[in-house]
Structure formats: C-alpha cells, structure tokens
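$ ./design --mode recover --in tokens.txt
reading tokens...
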C-alpha cells in the first residue's frame, strides 16, 4: 500500500514546515491526487488518520482533489 508511504512523506513535509515556521497544529491539508496516480483516496485518508495520531496533524481536515492526469502533490497546508 503506497498510500502509507505518501502519508509518511506528507508528515515529513509538515515537520519541515513546522521547523521553519513554528505553529501549534495543522487545521487543513489539501493534496492533489490525480487519477493517473493509482492512489486510492479512501486508503490515503485512512493512512493519514493512522499516521497523524498523537501528532500536530491529528484532527486536521484532509481534502483530496482528484484532477485527471496528475500524480500526487501537496497543494496547501493551513496552520494555526
């Protein structure tokens, strides 16, 4: 299941962002997961919920855009 690896990468990006500009928690994460990526949105959401437990990402609203013909990329992360 590569959705777990994608979420681990997402968490690493969030940690680097937090080191560069400290914040308490993430409110919303928006990712773009194109139809060509073979990523299953439900599996990605499940992996995000599991891996974000007990972190500053726990409870963040994960929004998944599904454009045709693209792969996976982080679009936006809203922090507080």
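writing sequence...
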């Amino acid at each position: 299941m590569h959705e777990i690896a994608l979420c681990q990468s997402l968490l690493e990006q969030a940690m680097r962002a937090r080191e560069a500009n400290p914040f308490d928690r993430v409110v919303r994460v928006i990712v773009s997961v194109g139809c060509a990526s073979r990523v299953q949105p439900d599996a990605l959401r499940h992996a995000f919920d599991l891996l974000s437990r007990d972190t500053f990402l726990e409870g963040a609203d994960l929004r998944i855009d599904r454009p045709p013909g693209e792969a996976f990329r982080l679009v936006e992360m809203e922090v507080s």
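exit 0
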